[in-house]
Amino acid sequence: MPSDSQTPKLKIGISSCLLGQSVRYDGGHSHSQTCTDFIEQHFVYVPFCPEVSAGFGTPRAPMNLVGDSASPKLKYVDISADKHNSALNDKLISGFLAQLDLVNELDGYITKSRSPSCGFGSTPLYLKTGERSSETDSGLFISALKERYPKLPIVEETELEDEVSCARFLDQVYFYHQLQN
User: Which of 8, 65, 101, 168 is most buried (most C-beta within 10 Å)?
Assistant: First the structure.
């Protein structure tokens, strides 16, 4: 990767909660000091929260991915709210479809780990009984993002805390930017 003086500020998508925006289900955030202190020096961020975009509101009832990794379904944690569960996938997907078109302008994406919409391989899957499965998967938004842009560098915020993983992501983003331009 070139020195900082030669590196252009690249556009990176990022889960809004990582920048301290209060968009999480509990009305809070997951501010990542790594993202705002170091990584932001290299990037112009494009924050996005698929759940808020879909109109779920803040705060909102917590949701999990339920089923197997081949076709997980977004469900409320409180299974007594089951009458509302059938449309959650469709509602979330319709909320982020327009954003997927804008990702072609980005050079990478930083996601919130374990999120049912934004996790990248770390999102727990649950059984229909509400018990946690031994499987993990990617959230619905990130799965759609990877399907549309399979070469886009994506990393969870937890990986950026590791110096080697962080450097690898920075290199991948810069390389991807060069390929796109």
Answer: 65
